[in-house]
Design goal:
This protein has about 250 residues and is α/β, with parallel strands linked by helices. It folds into 2 domains: about 150 residues, TPP-binding domain (Rossmann fold); about 80 residues, SIR2/SIRT2 'Small Domain' (2-Layer Sandwich), CATH 3.30.1600. It contains 10 helices and 9 strands. Helix 9 links the parallel strand 7 and strand 8. Helix 6 packs parallel to helix 10 and helix 8 runs parallel beside helix 9. It is elongated, with a radius of gyration of 18 Å. The structure holds 2'-O-acetyl adenosine-5-diphosphoribose.
């Protein structure tokens, strides 16, 4: 990371009263959770997103999809938040308002101690009814891992409570995220390719409303053209240093 970019990002954060953080898969990469679109290691270079992240894919082979998410859940239960998650968890009293808006479904921000995290794409640990009868189950303790179990209310399949391609985001969560983005002094964007909307639109909304935008990503991303400061470094390395002196 260039010392200059770090210094400029710190200066923006020091001046800011309010801050919204938008995170993507890169936020959790150093915890050992693979991203989606990074070359050979990205999840979508090995698996077909339409098979594993769409209603049609689930209907075609519910057991296959259920088992894939079960194995992701098991892996995520074994990993830990990284230094970047912990640095963000320490910021809640430094900015007002402060919010973390994440595309990640791994729950690592909350496990690091952040509260009120806006999870745009759901949460892998939760389960809901495929027929959307309203059933949501927070913990999977009693649910078998092999085939999707039946919804206790309507008998349809249960499915992971994550947003699949072609599905709408929870409008309450998205409204909250947009409201916060439109009012913040600084938006800090960490570890996202900026290829998935509406999440990728939030930094542009913030910028149009006068916010400064800081992007933390070791690689180029689609959001770089919106950045006032680009910090070319990983989340676990950059974030603790970004807030050392604020
Ligand atoms: P992507 O996989 O598209 O992008 C990950 C980004 O993280 C890339 O820009 C990498 O350069 C960057 N990156 C990699 N390692 C990093 C590190 N250690 N620190 C910081 N950045 C790093 O992931 P997302 O942008 O989150 O949707 O993808 C958006 C959505 O697409 C996901 O939420 C998921 C996926 O399909 C759903 O699950 C609904």
């Amino acid at each position: 990371m260039t010392a200059d970019a770090l210094a400029r990002a710190r200066a923006l954060l020091q001046k800011a009263g309010s801050c919204v953080v938008l995170t993507g898969a890169g936020m959790s990469a150093e915890s050992g959770v693979p991203t989606f679109r990074d070359g050979q290691t990205g999840v979508w270079s090995k698996f077909d997103p339409m098979q594993l992240a769409s209603r049609e894919g689930f209907e075609a082979d519910p057991g296959f999809v259920w088992r894939w998410y079960s194995s992701r859940r098991e892996k995520i239960a074994e990993v830990r938040p990284n230094a970047g998650h912990f640095a963000l968890a320490g910021l809640e009293r430094r900015f007002s308002p402060f919010a973390i808006v994440t595309q990640n479904v791994d729950g690592l921000h909350t496990r690091a101690g952040s509260t009120g995290v806006l999870e745009l794409h759901g949460n892998l640990m939760r389960t809901k009814c495929f027929a959307e009868c309203g059933v949501r189950i927070d913990s999977l303790a009693d649910v078998p891992a092999g085939e999707p179990p039946a919804c206790p209310s309507c008998g349809e399949w249960l499915r992971p409570d994550v947003v699949w391609f072609g599905e709408m985001l929870d409008p309450t969560v998205l409204d909250d995220a947009e409201r916060l983005a439109a009012r913040c002094d600084v938006m800090l964007v960490v570890g996202t390719s900026g290829m998935v909307y509406p999440a990728a639109g939030l930094p542009y909304l913030a910028r149009r409303r006068g916010a400064k935008v800081i992007v933390v990503n070791p690689n180029p991303s689609d959001i770089d053209d919106c950045a006032d400061v680009l910090v070319s470094e990983t989340a676990a390395k950059a974030l603790p240093r970004l807030f050392e002196a604020t």
